[in-house]
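SEQUENCE-TO-STRUCTURE ENTRY
===========================
Question of interest: how does this chain fold, as expressed in backbone structure tokens?
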Amino acid sequence: MSILVTGSTGNVGSIVLNNLIAQKISVKAASRNPADYNFPDGVKSVRLDFKDQSTFDGALESVDKVFLCIRSDSIELFVKAAKIAGVKLIVLLSSLTVAFSEDDGVIRKMHVDAENFIINSGIPYVFLRPGVFSANSKQLAKQIKSGVVRGAYAKSTNPRIHERDIAEVAVAALTTPELVGTAPALTGEQPISHEEVVAIIASELGKPIKFEEITEAEAVVEMSANGFPEVIVKSLLSYEKKNLGKEPFVSGEVARILGKPARTFQEWVRDHISEFK
């Protein structure tokens, strides 16, 4: 069995790669510029650029399964190439937004399209649908260091999920048959608000940090100025607004699949505390 790991240098993909290596499974690490990274010994690195179809065949050669992490219009072409190459399973890093039909944002549409391309290909699949990543909090690092964090919808809550839990479920999906044909919703078990996120990070750092609530319009301006596409920003803020006053959805799927509770946000902060200092 040989597994192609896309996004192999990212938050989730890098952990998937290392966990598969630990199980002594043959893996290929895909990236646009493999020469720029030092992959573990014994790992074959391959060039894969989703905007360059000429890289597809080489990356997919002798591959049985694919961990697919893609945010590109080229996914349909890649899935067609995977079908021709004889790929037997695609584990897609999708999004929990797919499960909520009332969400008409661009993020949901992107993931719905990706899932449909794979379903229509006939390749067996597992769609991992994580909710809000704990790792999104890295975006607060600069403000955390300044002592003041500004954001909209302070009391909007989400059960944030650790990237290690997502990766461990991905490895289970790639190495056992139980999840084939399913789309597990992956969340943490601890719903916390934006202001609680800041309070937890402050507690772990041992220093006071103020959360300053701002309007949605102000948040759009500030987040867009920090490099986020405005259409994505508006979609994210719309999601947060809809969460106000709602009972947060906690799936329990991590515990069911892995046989242990999902990691807490505090655990995530301790794993990444150096990034906030």
Q: What stands out?
A: The first strand starts at residue 2 and ends at 5. The radius of gyration is 19 Å. The mean pLDDT is 92.
